[in-house]
Amino acid sequence: MQTLKEQWFGNIRGDILSGIVVALALIPEAIAFSIIAGVDPMVGLYASFCIATIIAFVGGRPGMISAATGAMALVMVNLVADHGLNYLLAATILTGIIQIFMGVFGIAKLMRFIPNAVMIGFVNALAILIFMAQVPHFLGEGWLTYVFIGVTLLIVYTVPRFFKAIPAPLIAIVVLTAVAFMSGVELKTIGDLGTITQSLPSFFIPDVPFNLETLSIILPYSLALAVVGLLESLLTAQIVDDMTDTKSDKNREARGQGIANFINGFFGGMAGCAMIGQSVINVKSGGRGRLSTLIAGVFLMFLILVLGDLVVDIPMPVLVGIMVMVSIGTFDWGSFKYIVTAPRADAIVMLATVAIVVYTDNLAIGVVTGVILSALFFVASISKVKMKQHGTTYIIEGPLFFASTQSFVQSFEQVLEKEVTIDLSSSHLWDESAVGAVVKVVAKLEEQGTTVHVKGLNPASEELYNKLVGLTGGH
Asked: CB under 8 Å to 252, separation ≥6 — which residues?
């Protein structure tokens, strides 16, 4: 009960103000992601409202913002183009169901298989993507746009040094919107991105046939959305954990994401997940608890319903400036030193993760590729077996498994002694390939008339050896 009270009411003022800032930053993002997916802007706005509001109660990471995202929007483009909105909503509901099961079965345990190099690459790629998403909003828009972006950055970076009662991004939005309105300058506004309908989302069941054909259409997309959504959510949760020096329940977060998407699909919203940009804005603006996430969702709807006419007049350069600040703050500037000081394999993995994510615009592909590369480099590094000879004793150093057995076998090709001892006390047999390699070496040496003794097997290796060879004891 104490924990729950702390998560909801331990930082009321900071959570309310940061939630307001996040809500303002969510509007252009939600509209932009709707456009990417090929749906009406309200689909993204409804998704952001529903997911943020629901995840505040059922998520496992307080203070993290979840809503409609670009990574998810990219996955659903073809589904919308080929089958329309109703199939997207059905896919969103199925995505939620899949994510709930993933959470129940402990999907978060897989997080430990993501190396630090991949995490750094993920963060840097995300920072680059956040910045690149802003470029269309200011490129070729005139010098006034750059002035407003510059002033926004100035406010965001300097105001906190003297005044912290109100988040600097919120000050920038209010002040510069007022300046733009009173001066009558021509700037691109939120309203230019799409039409905002001042209405609440309503419950309805997607108009699709409930049969196997529909399932065959939406299942591949739902699986992809579930994986991408949880990957981005769990990685973002880890980043917020590090930023706030607190722990979170990743399996609960996975289930929460599923519950949010499941309900969201019945209210006309597209599938969503955690947003690193908005989560960073929330934390940097003072948000720490579940209340900040709830306020972000509720205030977003309040802006649409009550202040819709004012919201559409917020200058885009101001929000662009805030997102540029987020991209700068998100980027791990220490990674330049990391490239030089880290092992070459780790540096390559980090750079490959960044390059693939930026090139494909898909976080899942980049992260999975990074993990596979790390695994390959790891296997390559530990598959080197050394052999030292002391008289007729051959001491094997290094693990024996499928990737190292070839060099182990080759080490005994030139052995000509009549009696040899293979000492495995500095090694370990990890799999069937290792046992097979030892058996093969012994058999070849015995064929040429050499007496072979195998010693030094540790208990686990001896058990595996005896089990696979069918012996009652070792050599």
From this structure: 58, 59, 60, 103
